[in-house]
Structures are given as structure tokens and as C-alpha cells.
């Protein structure tokens, strides 16, 4: 584990320097505000691609996808570090893992059936095999497990030539319930649930450019909570329900940003690139990935704003 605490010391040094610039009689010149220095920490240091990290509900494990030996699989690692454990070994492309609310199972996207489907694996039982949840001839992906364990949201191109919509399916399987209804060619994806399971936030280019939308969990009229300023996606709802983290290229590079769940002023969280943000269960950190060439590792940033 490699910590970038040097940034903290630099920031503190600047603060002390500015504090000493004014005269003791209050006649010193006013100094410009000091820029926020994110407190970040590198959690993995592997020379391979890692993505879509998410912390278990009990805060003990990090679930993520990784490409090793030319194969993309789902892995699990203790939050404190150590050797990761490979949870899937199929030759298929296994990606976008999420935890069940009780932490005993995971859902993920896989093309092992010939097209993309949502699969569920009981990680509490050694030797358990994944079970196919969505059974169709279309592509389903990017699962999101409802906090109340009622359903799993996902994206699907069911009935479309171009684009995708957000659907939900009962955790035990069943019929798809459409949540979004947009024109052909629009992509609606990367849904996440509010902590009370009452709403879904997702990425959509229905207005012409990628932005974030919030809609009731049963469907209805969606409201846009971010402007159309470059790519914005992969939302993650904070545990207190107040904020939504997401990745955005509005600064020129993909960085992690936060917006109030009701919409409003945006706040930039990272300054040295960031992808796939996910809040920790206690809301004190956001974990994400830093992509450098073909290598992507997992980092965390302290929620200090």
C-alpha cells in the first residue's frame, strides 16, 4: 500500500507560509485562498487493469474486476490490503461486480452465455457456481443491487437496434420492469440506487450529451441533475442520501466529482484523474481507479469537504 501523504504536508506548508505573511497589526495584504489538496491513498499496486471497485457492506472487502492472464474476472481483496482472491475463472468477460446488501452474494455482468447477462454468485459458500439471473437473447449489463434487497437494476438493449434502457428484475428472477423510456439511439446505463431504494440515478445521453438523471425506482419522469458539459457517468449515491459521486471530463481529464442528489453546484474531488467512484459504507471515503496507460489501480480519497 503506497500513501500519497506528501500532498498533505505540501498543503500544510503552504498554509503555514500564508499565515506568516500578514503583519501582527492586521495590516498585511490579503492572500488568495489555498487550493484544496485531496487526501488520497493507493490501495493496489498491480501491473494490470483493475476497475469498478466497491466496498462490502461491512467495510471489510473490496470487490473489483481485473484482467490477469489475458482474462477479465471478478476479484476480492481485504480493505487493509493483502493478496486478492479470484472469485470467477470462466474464460468469458466478467465485469462490473456489485454486493448484495448482506454481503453474502455478488452480481456481475458476463458474456459466458453467448450474450451479456447478469449473473449472481454466493460468495459465502466455497465452491458455489454463478447462477444466470437475466435470460434473454439481448445484452444486459451493469447491475446495481437495491439496498432493500428487492431488485437488481441493469441496462439492456431489449427491443432496440441502438441504445439501451434501465430495467429492474426481482432478486430471485422474473420479468423485466422498464424504468426509462427514451428514443431509439439513446444510451441509459450505470444505474445506482438511493440508500432508501426509492430512486435510481443513471447516466444518459438522451439530451444529446452525457449527463446524470434521477428517476423514481418504479419509473416516471426523470430529472437531470448535471449540465451537458462533456462526459459524465458512473454515479454512486452517498450513504446519507445527500450526494452523488460521478466521473466527468468537464475539467479536460476524467476526474471524480460530487453533486447534491437534488442537483446544484458541482464539486471536484480528485485532481490527478479518476474513474468508477464508489462510496465507502461509512461515507468517509470514495474509492476509485486511476488509469495510466493500460494499467489501472484502486485508490481512495477522504471525504473532507
Task: Report on the architecture of this protein.
The protein is mainly beta. Helix content is 5%, strand content 43%. The protein has one helix at residues 6-19; strands at 2-3, 40-42, 49-55, 61-68, 71-78, 85-86, 94-99, 105-110, 117-122, 131-132, 140-145, 151-156, 165-170, 177-178, 188-193, 199-204, 211-216, 223-224, 232-237, 243-248, 255-260, 267-268, 275-279, 285-292, 295-302. A five-stranded antiparallel beta sheet has the order 1-2-25-24-23, with no helix packed on it.
In short:
The chain has 305 residues and is mainly beta. It has one helix at residues 6-19, and strands at residues 2-3, 40-42, 49-55, 61-68, 71-78, 85-86, 94-99, 105-110, 117-122, 131-132, 140-145, 151-156, 165-170, 177-178, 188-193, 199-204, 211-216, 223-224, 232-237, 243-248, 255-260, 267-268, 275-279, 285-292, 295-302.
Describe the SSE topology.
Layout: E1 2-3, H1 6-19, E2 40-42, E3 49-55, E4 61-68, E5 71-78, E6 85-86, E7 94-99, E8 105-110, E9 117-122, E10 131-132, E11 140-145, E12 151-156, E13 165-170, E14 177-178, E15 188-193, E16 199-204, E17 211-216, E18 223-224, E19 232-237, E20 243-248, E21 255-260, E22 267-268, E23 275-279, E24 285-292, E25 295-302
Antiparallel strand pairs: 1-2, 2-25, 3-4, 4-5, 5-6, 7-8, 8-9, 9-10, 11-12, 12-13, 13-14, 15-16, 16-17, 17-18, 19-20, 20-21, 21-22, 23-24, 24-25
